[in-house]
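Notes from hallway chat w/ T.B., transcribed later so I don't forget. T.B. wanted the structure written out for a chain they're using in a teaching module, and asked if we could keep both sequence and structure tokens in one place. Agreed to drop them here.
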Amino acid sequence: EINYYIIDYGTEALRKFSNFPHIGDMVYIGEDEKLNNLVKMLKDIISERKRLFVSYGGDYNTYIDKSGNSLPLIGIIINNYDAFYEANINIDEDLAGLTRDAIRYGIFFILTANGENSVRRRIKQNFSTILALKLNDESAYNSIFGKVNNLPKETEGRGLFKTDKVYEFQTASITDNGNENEYLTNIGNRLKEINNYVAKRVPTLPNIVTTLSVSKYLKDLSSVPIGISKSTLEVVNYD
């Protein structure tokens, strides 16, 4: 139903999700080839979906409703857009087009940034939802949402978002005891057990193919990953 690709230019805290079957791949600082391949892969997916959707008004939702076929939604998360932009100014042009056009083909983007001016207007205008957590400069809330009458309370995880007007929200922890890493590891392992489908990885050829590179593609002895093909850049399985 949904596949995610995570570009983490922060502290790599999102690495803890890499074991999940619906996480196709993770891209970190310095992995320029993988990032370029991800952009190319998205463009290829859009081209293919344009062809598939031509009889359905060129729209993902109409295709899913009327065709009887299924295609996953694809979510692209860019964590710490400030650092991403500094390192990839050349890709920013591609991103402007992708964030504008991709949603009708079932591809959506989530960006995290450190300030209200971190994302250029050309890209920001393609996003319908903005959520702001605690900001150091209180006037920044007005810059983001227009006039804000009440600032969020000084509570961890509290913030503001806007629909018809500005509302306050509260995030919650996914665990009671705070042991998030162990919890996510267990959830990831359980999801792998109950799902036969694994999201497609970004085609790349690592210098060294480790067990970690291919482990989530191991289901049973009928499909054991033994490496990555140099010609297709896909994981090769052996029965």
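Follow-up for T.B.: Residues 32-53 form the longest helix (22 residues). Might be a good example for the class.
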